[in-house]
Amino acid sequence: MLLTNYQTDSFYDEMFSEEGGIRQSYHILKSRIEGMDDKELLKRKASAEKALLSLGITFNVYGDEEEEERIMPFDIIPRIVTSFEWKKMEEGLKQRIRALNLFIQDIYGDEKIIKDGVIPAEIVYSSSGYLKECKGIKPPKGIWIHITGTDLVRDGDGQMLVLEDNLRCPSGVSYVLENREVMKKTFPELFASLSVRPIYDYPIRLRGMLEHLSDKPNPNIGVLTPGIYNSAYYEHSFLASRMGVPLVEGTDLTVRDDKLYMRTTKGLKQVDVLYRRIDDTFMDPKTFRKDSLLGVPGIFEVFKKGNVALANAPGTGVADDKVIYSYVPDFIKYYLGEEPIIPNVPTYLCSREKDLKYVCENIGNLVVKAANGAGGYGMIIGPVASEKEKEEFVEKVKADPRNYIAQPVLSLSRIPTLIEDKLEGRHVDLRPFILYGEEIYVMPGGLTRVALRRGSLVVNSSQGGGSKDTWVMG
Length: 474
What we know:
By secondary structure, this protein is of the alpha+beta class. Among the domains are: 24-85 and 170-200 and 411-472, no CATH class; 220-271 and 273-307, 3-Layer(aba) Sandwich (Rossmann fold), CATH 3.40.50.11290; 348-408, Dna Ligase, domain 1. It has 14 helices and 23 strands. It has helices spanning 27-34, 38-55, 83-107, 112-115, 121-125, 173-186, 188-193, 202-212, 233-243, 299-304, 322-325, 328-336, 353-361, 387-399, and strands spanning 58-60, 69-71, 74-81, 147-149, 151-154, 160-164, 221-224, 247-248, 253-256, 259-264, 267-270, 273-276, 309-311, 348-349, 366-370, 379-381, 404-408, 414-419, 422-431, 433-436, 440-442, 447-451, 465-472. The strands form seven sheets. The protein has a five-stranded mixed sheet. It has a four-stranded parallel sheet with strand order 8-7-12-13. Helix 3 crosses helix 12. The longest helix is centred in the first third of the chain and has 25 residues, at 83-107. The mean pLDDT is 92.
């Protein structure tokens, strides 16, 4: 039996307690797995992988010499979250998004949080995500952050922590939706016996949120993609198709008389709401990067004048900065007068002299990250780095301390994962997706990313990670 020899290796395991007992939420799953022989489970795994391959769910790895599209690895052992656990996560994520939205509104407005000394002005202004061009802008309905993917981790004690926020163009929700469809076919009997909260309505809710941003009864909506060579192009086309709206590139759009139009076979058609999947500075060569071939000349002025709603609003990337992330608990207290429901991972700011000294002397025990790094790049995991790598990274940090943070190496929780023909524990995180429209909606579940390499703590697909379906119990 695949579960017979499973070892937790002293890590917090999502399925098994330290004493080796099964956690209550996994009882039915365990009995189902034990009720089938090993060959049957492996057969279902092969069937799921074949289904995903036929769906063509792919991503590109930037910097890969072969430049080949890859299938996101998928594991059929689901992650199960109890309704009690989920309620706390949901409340914590809603609290966080409200505070972040108020912060972005404030720094591009009256800057009260800076004047009151909660966050230094230089930290905000020096962030690569801060856009001075957004000063004084008031986006439709006062919402800056429409779609968020917040990364959560569970530490060695089982406590849930926020690892980082993704506010510009968070990706991965297409994998969540497709994984669920595959799992329904892989374990139909489990779905019949468990009350798993549905997620199929996410594209409907996404479209409803986008419609809310316009005052028109039936606004014209589009999804803006950088094109087929973008790593998340599959998701862009997937969401456009599921919402029933056009997928467009910058060359499909034009600005006329301070309005945004889409070129169609029947002439120009005004666009009222645009879900953009390109970074801020590539959006408009007239305002930002003059060398950008991906954006639409003049679109920022159209947005400033209130003639098009952009989701997410330009300028939200300032809150993706990992230095500013460390202040989010302070934002929650300042704007909402509340204690954070989900705490941050303890963080050292290298821009602080005391923190810099500690990081340089203890880099072998820390994870050090670039403030605007992503995808597992621009970071070092001290315990597994060579002496040369640590020395070189210390020099990088000393040369540009503002743009580095450090965190303790967390013993991320693990989940049984089917590796070849046996079940082994692998480290995971969780990215729930949040929509901010007329109200805040948190998709029940999200993308559980799993580090498939033995001992690895890096779950990103570009670094060899895969994904699991996440089941929130009703």
